[in-house]
Amino acid sequence: MIRNLDMAGEFYTYDGYAGMSEYIVLGLSRLGVQVNLLPFKLETDGLSDEMLDIVAAAGPIGAGPLLFNSWVRPELDRYSKHPLMIHTMWESSRLPASWVGPLNRARVVMVPTRFVARMFRDSGVTAPIEVTPDGVDADVYPCVSRPEREGVTTLVVGTVVPRKHVDQAVQAWQLAFADNPTARLVVKARFGAEGRGGLTAHDPRITIVDESEPTRGILHWYEQADVLLALGSEGFGLPLVEGMATGLPVIALSSEGQGDVCADAGDLLLAVAPSHWEDVYEPHLGHCGVRGVPDVAKTAQHLRWVASHRDEARALGRAASAWAHKERDVWQKPKAMLEVMEHHWPH
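That's the Glycosyltransferase sequence above. Prediction below.
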């Protein structure tokens, strides 16, 4: 059994990898594993007291198992001579060619969705690949009772980069609510001007928020919304399950990693198939296959349904919340990861 584990990664609250790191660490610790942190980025604001105790106890790298939790990045080279396990993901149909070699040196690669597992194999990863889904914390994202209110507030959560498809979200919202003075759109980005990606809004009904919030979740933004647009090409799609957990009806792109939840949750979501596929080219990484682009007209149709069927939309959100809390419980992830690591780490 694994009793001690070094874990390299980022640790802070307002990012997918970095935020999930805390749940992995705490979950493993509660399962009896002494986790030693090897941070290459650490921000303590918002971390739990339990996590801060583990941060304070961190020391040098040991001789036992090592888990690298991040994308394939230069920091991985620090551990090139150290046997390790990797938890990572990618968001289009093909891995960057430069990722394949480092991943194949891992004892096991853990990914959050079946989509990522298939795509890794198709891209040439021959190391063992295991799916350990991400999830949502019901204490941070409970089902919220929203008051009756005039108009519909639509929420988008994500940085303004091409794969998040914020432009398509804005287009769909404008198509659905062009002449509706009570409609509102909130785009919740982060990382300041960089995360805003140059997005501006001349429509006074649109609010763009780009501050990084070092808090335990962003429930306050989900509480203010009546519907969530989750239209990004994702490795998993945390905002999708966060929105579901809070009881929002969610309109979701059903390709890439979000396709797993769309398939598993079925009609508890308002799914949007891609209208077409776009080539993916990443600077310094090259061509990475294709990704789905959400159908703007279908998204607008779903938005109009939510606006005209408020009671049915709320009922859909409540049912989705129950599903998310049961089927994507974040505390199941460290349990699954420990089983995988103990299976693949030599005894």
